[in-house]
Amino acid sequence: MSESIESKLENYFQMLDRQKLKELREQHLQESASKEKEELKNLHYMHCPKCGTKMEPIMMHNIEIDKCPDCLGIYFDNSELEQLLEIEFDKRRTLVRKIFGLK
Questions:
Q1: Per-residue pLDDT band at 13 (split at 50, 70, 90)
Q2: Does residue 63 share a domain with residue 95?
Q3: Three-state SS sequence of 8-24
């Protein structure tokens, strides 16, 4: 016995519905993951990894360094440490002493 045209059409449309639901589910998962990642970034961005206080940028010799006002932790962004090491020794020593609050 062969399937009727109505039955074939019903099966076809069910298959299309399943595919569309799968695509929508995957899209929702991707959007949720992206939104969660953005929320986590906003929650932690520019906060001290040790104590969670909002970090403050300080400029020294055209290098922006992030410093925690509470625990005095220092954070170097990508290439900032290399920039610091390229400064002449005497200037670098003075800069490092300022960063760490030494005299």
A1: very high
A2: yes
A3: HHHHHHHHHHHHHHHHH
